[in-house]
Design a protein that fits this description.
Elements: E1 8-13, E2 18-24, E3 26-31, E4 34-39, E5 45-57, E6 63-76, E7 79-88, H1 95-111, H2 116-137
Helix pairs in contact: 1-2
Length: 140
């Protein structure tokens, strides 16, 4: 296991609560343009979060996983701050509600017509619902 001097200080927060504030060896997270892995010493970065799982590799304590939806991440060489609009532990996800959200997103997509804004919003709703359902189904 890495010593404390080479671990990242990670904070995962939503407007309602702090879900994680601890050290981690590495962090995997969904950006809007794809997944990133952050290790100690990473170059500074600010990115927009997408919908998906944040996996925190905590060494001997094991991994922790959270489903996030939208927001921002700030990466510094020794610290990662994840500001998510919504974040849940996989066991907190209501699969039936995520299914309803997926149905709503598909209906929005069908009705989007020529509106790029409506189409993008439908895709956002669909991506969030699919990410929640995948997270809840993955029993790592």
């Amino acid at each position: 296991m890495a010593d404390d001097a080479t671990q990242l200080r990670v904070r995962l927060v939503t407007p309602e609560r702090t879900l994680f504030e601890h050290a981690a060896v590495s962090v995997e997270l969904p950006s809007k343009s794809g997944y990133l892995e952050v290790l100690y010493g990473h170059a500074p970065l600010v990115a927009e979060l997408g919908a998906g799982d944040v996996t925190l590799h905590c060494g001997a304590e094991g991994d922790q996983r959270y489903n996030v939806s939208w927001g921002f991440v700030e990466v510094l060489p020794d610290r990662v701050t994840i500001l998510a609009s919504d974040a849940l532990k996989p066991e907190e996800i209501d699969v039936a509600r995520a299914g309803q959200q997926l149905d709503r997103g598909l209906e929005m997509w069908k009705k989007a017509g020529e509106s790029e804004e409506a189409y993008n919003e439908a895709l956002r709703v669909i991506a969030e619902a699919e990410a929640k359902m995948a997270s809840a189904a993955d029993k790592r």
